[in-house]
Amino acid sequence: MRILGQKPNTKRPVIVAAATALFASRGVDATSMRDVADAAGVREAAIYRHFRGKEEMAQEIFTSWYEWYGQQVQEIAQRADPLPERLSTLVHLEFAAAREHPQEFLYFCENEARFLRRLRRDVPRVRQELIKMIRKAQARGVVRSGNAGLLADMLSGALCTVAISAIRRKDSLALESEKLAAESCWQMIKPNK
Predict the structure, then answer these.
(1) Residues 148, 138: contact at Cβ < 8 Å?
(2) In total, how many domains does the chain have?
(3) How many alpha carbons lie under 13 Å from residue 87 in its C-beta half-sphere?
(4) Mind listing the pLDDT tens digit for each residue in 19-63?
């Protein structure tokens, strides 16, 4: 991810990690720049060398994760693989992100509504990519008919909820159940026969 790899010989990665963990556990509004500085082991002034303020920092952290995730979802959605295989890949992406970066995942998921509207236009929107994938599959009769936005929201919401719940409960086994999750996602959107 871009933000985590930037300026590796500075305190920026430490500040970003501390801020992300605090934003995930307390929320952006309940976290002060002093809290971030204390958690990062730096002076508050050091943060301002990298960010103009807390809101800019919170937006930049969100944007870096969302941009990465949106590009991954776009790539999966545009594949020519059968839809159940793409769903399996989507589940793997979601669960791997939750396993490998739990604090970042929580922050990313729980702040989407707050920061999404401020993203650059060129950043793929996850919901729109899922809607496009579902509509194409509906046109081929591979997905049940109906509101593609609702189906995309159900699919995304189910995966996000499972991952968030597993992180909060410290239930790593739930995030290893990719096959069951992918089958359940397929059951949610496959055509009724």
Answers:
(1) yes
(2) 1
(3) 25
(4) 999 999 999 999 999 999 999 999 999 999 999 999 999 999 999
